[in-house]
Amino acid sequence: MTSLDSDDVIQMVPKRLPHDHPLADRTELMGNDLKLICAKPDCLSNPCLHGSTCTETYDGYECLCSVCSSGNQCQDKLLKDCSEIYASGERISGVYKICPGSNVEDKEPIDVYCNIDEDGGWLVFQRRQDGTVDFYQNWAAYKNGFGDLEAEFWLGNDIIHRITYQGNYTLRIYMVDLNGQSSTALYNNFRVANESEGYRLKDLTYNATSSNGGSIVLLKPTAFYNDLPPIQFSKNGNYILY
């Protein structure tokens, strides 16, 4: 059945008859089985959020949420990075689930380590501290990530690309040498290209080799440093060189 609404034609859908409807007790007309009436679709008002799918039911509607959202109307979505997690009130560093990307319905959630203790909201994508993880890995390993988020690890070039292409980020590199001396470097506009571009780093110069001291690499969506020359990634056979 259709209904005229202004200049539009609306396809009516079956809905359960409300208990307070005048026909609710007219069993001689409606029978004792499921009582339905024709009504405007509830999904017409787009009640489901963040790209979720609205499905009509006899009693209203149901929202089919994406993997990055939840709630009756999919109103609750995973945050996109550690700075948003910090802004939400979290104050304990550790592993959190985020869903980076501009279109939440097209994304998959990922686990990341957030450093919230120092200046709040930094996402760690590399940690080297005791040599328990071999960082001489092939291209596929660096693409997908390896190690343990609670210990030594590389987050993965695909994930780093996905995160850094959703906004402007500052790269922070914290290093400790064999004598226990530490240093920190900050770079702005940190962005990692996709695999087809060789995961190039843009607007940044950074070249590091393994040591027994330690290093931690973090990023945060702020930008204060300018005019940095581009870094170059290269492949040697099936291996990536740093």
UniProtKB/TrEMBL annotation:
Main localization (coarse): secreted
Any Pfam family the entry gives: EGF
Subcellular localization, as worded in the UniProt entry: Secreted
Coiled coil: none
Domain of life of the organism encoding this protein: Eukaryota
UniProt keyword annotations, A-Z: Disulfide bond, EGF-like domain, Glycoprotein, Secreted
Keyword hit for Secreted: yes
PROSITE patterns according to UniProt: EGF_1, EGF_3, FIBRINOGEN_C_2
Domain Fibrinogen C-terminal residue range list: 73-242
SMART domains xrefs: FBG (SM00186)
Record has S-adenosyl-L-methionine as a keyword: no
Protein name: Uncharacterized protein
Organism this protein belongs to: Strongylocentrotus purpuratus
Organism placement in taxonomy: Eukaryota, Metazoa, Echinodermata, Eleutherozoa, Echinozoa
